[in-house]
Amino acid sequence: MYDEHGSLRGFIQVTRDLTERQKIEAKFEGLLEAAPDAMVGVDPTGAIRFVNRQTEALFGYDRDSLLGQSIEMLLPESFRQVHAGHRAAYLANPETRAMGAGLELGGRRIDGTTFPVTISLSSIETEDGLLVIAAVRDITERQFVEQVLRDSEERFRRVFDESIIGKFLVNSDGAILRVNATLSALLGSEPQEFIGQPLDVLFDDDSDQARILELIETGEGELRAEMAMSDNHGQPLCGLVALTWMRELDGERVLLAQVEDITARRAAEQRLNEYALHDELTGLPNRRLLLERCEHAFDRAKSGRSDNTSVAALFIDLDGFKAVNDRAGHDAGDQVLIDVANDLTSMLRPTDTVARIGGDEFVVLLEQDDGLEHLRTVAGRITTTIRRQVTADTDSLALSASVGIARVDLVQEPEVSPDQLLRRADAAMYRAKERGRDQYDVFDTDLLERTEARQVLVQAIRDGLRHDRVALVFQPIVDVDSNIVVGAEALMRLTNAQGRLMPTLPSIVAAEVAGLAEAVGDRVLHLALEAASTWPAHMSLAVNVSARELTGRDLRIRVEQALQRHDFDPTRLVLEITESSILRAGPSALAELERLRQQGVRVAIDDFGTAYATLRNLTILPVDVLKVDASFTAGLPHQRAHTAIVHGVASMAFELDIPCIVEGVETEAQLEAIRGMAVHAQGWYWGMPQGPGCIPMLNPVPLPTARPDATRT
């Protein structure tokens, strides 16, 4: 019984043990079934004894088709030997069975496609023996991400190392970790020389170093600024520096420092700034810099920081420079300007500013105004210093200076601007020229009134151009012997905003002084061509050209463009130029006139006789028409001298085969005095200038032989 009882007890114990094991195995299988990875249980021979649902989903097999099959059916052929060796080693070493290290292999689905997996091994004792559990995880996505990261890292390294911009990598303590070749070349040191150095010491300015240290200490933010650096030879560099925090693949935060060498750019910008503020030929300040310094002087005088509340300017214009430039050549003219600039600079104080603001115009700004007498002394020294003779071939040309003085007390006249001060000095200079040149003049109350009146005119001109207040009237030109209108002269009329007519001649002068001559001339030319395009083909159109337009560089181009725009016959256009202007015109201006004449445009000398042109000049100058000045016509027929001059000019023109127009005919007696001389005439005898549609005899019908005498208004 004992044995039986003992055996029974043993059987009962075994049964209990088996039941307990079955419970454990069932529980273990439940855990494997719920695992997120594919779980494959194999026996020591590699036969599959267990798979969970994740295995079916991953490989595409159903559970029944896998049980009993070799584990290698789930592996690509290229990985089977590696897996077998790994499983054998695992089984041979009981100490490793707690958990086999993950092994990267490949998986093979039922459709033959392969994919990367990791396999981790563990084991459990079952009633059937050792069961090796392989946890299989699809790592396709992980490998893709890792490859992307590796590619990104490689790209970063390549961009870093091969960039044309200098780069540092700096750790969170501010020590340099890595340097690219561009930065090494820029600073003239080998890359390893930078490793471990603190970043901030590479920058010269204390404030830049402080900003970099603050960025490193806070561990966040970014910085972009121009910073001063030096290479290993001590040569200064200007770097555009950008500092940005970033995180590397290993998770460490690093500071990326990028340095673009902008030394050459800044030097070029400095040169451009110099060009923008200085005259290229002489190196003197230009008008822009002059006005900036003038503003500074005005602010200082108004601030009370100085006992001197006045600022003065001397406006200098070279007399005779145009003749030097035209006859001696532009190179000689440039050298004269350079010499004058040097002379002015050497004779004045360091606190004074000498500027070149135009072709042959200079300005001296005196921030320390020592009174009018001192200014007179300075102006006298300037005229003495500039006075000289310039050799042109065998000729000796006189060069001198007209100087205008203006000063303003900013306490008494706080409303005066720097530009007004210069205009006052300019006005005084012009009066010095009118008084004979090679001298100075001082701006005074009379000039103030004239200057203010001119400013009103200039503003009226600007407004007139902007708002189409420029209009034309026409004075007919008549063949005296036939009483036929053969043409008309265009005369400008300008009205202000209130509709009042502005004086014409002062307006033209103001336009020239203000640099508006070409704009006004273009408007007049276009209006005249537009009006005359409806006239009979035999009628000519005369348009005045100012002295400033004549010496401009693009008169010919402007005339050609206007003729083309209005499809106007060039042979009908006459450009009227005063005798004094054409005598002062240089060779280049005369050459441009000659090119226009070759196209059919005619040139008339206006006011002939007032500048004493000689017969020799008439054979040289580009002249097609002579116009006798009205001052000579006024003496007809009673003053013998005037009569002789008019008859002489008419005869000279006839002999030279040049048409002659007598200006200023107002009375029947004057008309009779020039009959039979084969001349044309114009004047108030035929009425006041009128609009283009009211020109008498647009169709060639004889004019009345007489009308009541007209008087000037």
Description:
The protein is an alpha+beta fold and 713 residues long. It folds into 5 domains: 1-31; 35-138, 2-Layer Sandwich (Beta-Lactamase), CATH 3.30.450; 144-266, Beta-Lactamase (2-Layer Sandwich), CATH 3.30.450; 278-443, Reverse transcriptase/Diguanylate cyclase domain (Alpha-Beta Plaits, 2-Layer Sandwich); 472-490 and 515-694, Alpha-Beta Barrel (TIM Barrel), CATH 3.20.20.450. Strand 1 (38-42) and strand 2 (48-51) form a beta hairpin. Residues 1-16 and 698-713 have low confidence and may be disordered.
CATH architecture of the largest domain: Alpha-Beta Barrel
Tell me, what is the CATH class of the largest domain?
Answer: Alpha Beta
Give the termini distance in whole angstroms.
165 Å
Largest sheet: 8 strands, mixed, barrel
- CA radius of gyration is 50 Å
Note the total helix count.
24
Q: Can you tell me the CATH superfamily of the largest domain? A: EAL domain
Report strand %: 15-25%
Shape from CA axes? elongated
Count the domains: 5
Strands of the largest sheet, in order across it? 17-18-20-21-22-23-24-25
Mean pLDDT: 82
- Write down the CATH topology of the largest domain: TIM Barrel
Low-confidence stretches: 1-16, 698-713
Portion of residues within helices: 40-55%
